[in-house]
Amino acid sequence: MNNNKKAVIVGGGHAGGNLVIALRKAGFDGHITLVSDEGALPYQRPPLSKSWLNESVTLERLYLKPAAFYDEQRVQVMLNSTVERIQRNDKRLLLADGTALEYDYLVLATGARARPLALPGGEFENLHCLRNLADAERLKAQLHGATHLAVIGGGYIGLEVAASARQLGVKVSVIERESRLLARVASETLSHYYQRQHQARGVDILNRVGVAELKSDAGRLTSVVLDNGVETACDLALVGIGAIPNDELARAAGLQVDNGIVVDHQARTSDPAIFAIGDVSQRPLPVYNRQFRLENISNTLEQAKIVAAVLAEQPLPADEVPWFWSDQYDIKLQIAGLGIDTDVDIVRGDPASDKFSVFRFCGDRLMAVEAVNSPAEFMLGKKWIGAGTAVDRGLIADASVSVRDCAVLHS
Amino acid sequence: MATVTYIDKSGNVYQAEVEDGVTLMEGAVHSSVPGIDAECGGACVCATCHIYIDEEWQATVGRPNEIESMTLEEVDGIKPSSRLACQIAMSSELDGLVVHVANE
Ligand SMILES: Cc1cc2nc3c(=O)[nH]c(=O)nc-3n(C[C@H](O)[C@H](O)[C@H](O)COP(=O)(O)OP(=O)(O)OC[C@H]3O[C@@H](n4cnc5c(N)ncnc54)[C@H](O)[C@@H]3O)c2cc1C
Ligand code: FES
């Protein structure tokens, strides 16, 4: 039915890669072209700040799908190709090498890039950010053999790299502007738990300080000077202070952009032939009744399924609750939902036992569950948030009550 | 290297050669076995790699660790033979293994 339609996907990251899989699964049998400015087929990014840094794993094991899959599924993959312009009037894309590509449907899956440190002259061979495989390979090569790593920014990526570095015996300092780690994304209980865990393993955590200056010698960073005057010597540094959406193509094409490309519940932009998915999209979140730009794998999967359903003329999938995870040392963190507008946090279990969860409420509504080594709380929390199930706050605080018995059942 | 047989929900049979150290989930994804979506890429979070291990293989494959067991307890269709395919690394002892995929 869609036989002659041409779908072009810009960006071969998690969103683009998952969309290829989802389109064929949904029965879209038109042409698919995937254009990526990277040299590798779509691959997993989460391991790059985790186990991968300490292991030797072949590139193929990071791939979402093996090379043969794209041939079997008749997908044209254009690697090392950058899309420079969208010509909406004649539905064409212009690539950096001069190639023009026609589309019936265009999907922007251009992701986000690491936010650079706002300091002049900040380019050194031993100063890294971590967004893609090329960044990760450079960081990994220098991490083995480093003596002191400075991590600028106490977010998930920075903390995961800090954990991997400690496991390799590298000294680590984490520099965090806010009063606690993960300040924007986690409950206080979880922040404090990670602070203690990292400190117990020898990580030096510096809170409430910013970076004033980077000192270098012969093109190599030698120390980070903090805005309280303290100087931290290092032979390797990672900046992990968030990401900026790659929405310039869309902006230049006159699409609606507002911290990401604005899309509707079908992931459609202000041009009905153009969709945007993944980290670059500013999307409605029906479960939370607002627009949001998410940066996680679950979002790429959900939006890939949505666009696949639209293009294959199938019913839209059910709304999903975002989920996320982080692996640091042997601590497994799983998060269901988003901790926005929360006014009450209820802790279940004892953080000192390394097995606890934080149920985060807005009034009576469960918004998010942060589960540390507690998969049942994560799995049930995800279901409950999605279904709007009421949770008994008194019961949930009592870890001796089975988590399943904490939902308030409607009779 | 060992041979694994995956049987999907509809009874279709897929045979894959899986290298030592590579997980059963990766073997299935590589061969596009339906029902192994592996959304989290093997992090033991999504449970979209749920399989059942044929009885004669259960002892050789071994038991899940605590995190995996706790995850399985909340998964639809759990049975005593349930495992998450991303938590099982291939080895020569597992040559000839037969598993059933839990999801469509
Ligand atoms: C180190 C790291 C660890 C992470 N860990 C987790 C985790 O544990 N759990 C989790 O849920 N999420 C995690 N994330 C987040 C997750 O990886 C992202 O949400 C996901 O990659 C977003 O997918 P995307 O396709 O939207 O963007 P990306 O994966 O960034 O892909 C976008 C692609 O588009 C390409 N591109 C951009 N512009 C153009 C252009 N003009 N032409 C051609 N190509 C272009 C980019 O180069 C890139 O390849 C992690 C991210 C990183 C970096
Ligand atoms: S792949 Fe996600 S749990 Fe196995």
Task: Walk me through this protein's architecture.
The complex is a heterodimer of chains A (411) and B (104). With 411 residues, chain A is α/β, with parallel strands linked by helices. Chain A has 3 domains: 6-113 and 243-312, FAD/NAD(P)-binding domain (3-Layer(bba) Sandwich), CATH 3.50.50.60; 116-239, FAD/NAD(P)-binding domain; 330-405, 2-Layer Sandwich (Enolase-like, domain 1). Helix content of chain A is 22%, strand content 30%. Chain A is built from 9 helices and 26 strands. Chain B has 104 residues and is of the alpha+beta class. Chain B has one domain (2-101): Ubiquitin-like (UB roll), CATH 3.10.20. The termini of chain B are far apart. Bound molecules: flavin-adenine dinucleotide (FAD) and FE2/S2 (inorganic) cluster. FE2/S2 (inorganic) cluster binds at residues 25, 38-40, 42-49, 84, 86 of chain B.
Secondary-structure content class of chain B = alpha+beta
Give the structural class of chain A: alpha/beta
Task: Please state roughly what percent of the residues of chain B sit in beta strands, choosing from under 5%, 5-15%, 15-25%, 25-35%, 35-45% or over 45%.
Answer: 15-25%
Largest sheet of chain A: 5 strands, parallel
Instruction: Give the tally of structural domains of chain A.
Output: 3
The largest sheet of chain A has its strands arranged as: 3-2-1-7-19
Number of helical segments with 4 or more residues of chain B: 3
Concise overview:
Chain A is of the alpha/beta class and 411 residues long.
Task: Spell out the blueprint of helices and strands.
The complex is a heterodimer of chains A (411) and B (104).
Chain A (H helix, E strand, L loop, with lengths): L5 E5 L3 H12 L5 E5 L31 H6 L2 E4 L4 E5 L4 E4 L4 E3 L2 E4 L3 E3 L12 E2 L4 H11 L4 E5 L3 H12 L3 E6 L11 H13 L3 E4 L3 E7 L2 E7 L4 E3 L2 E4 L3 E3 L2 H5 L8 E2 L11 E3 L4 E5 L4 E3 L4 H15 L11 E6 L2 E7 L6 E7 L4 E8 L2 E8 L2 H13 L5 H4 L15
Chain B lengths: L1 E6 L5 E6 L5 H7 L19 E4 L4 H4 L4 H8 L8 E3 L12 E5 L3
Parallel strand pairs in B: 1-5
Antiparallel strand pairs in B: 1-2, 3-4, 3-5
Bound molecules: flavin-adenine dinucleotide and FE2/S2 (inorganic) cluster.
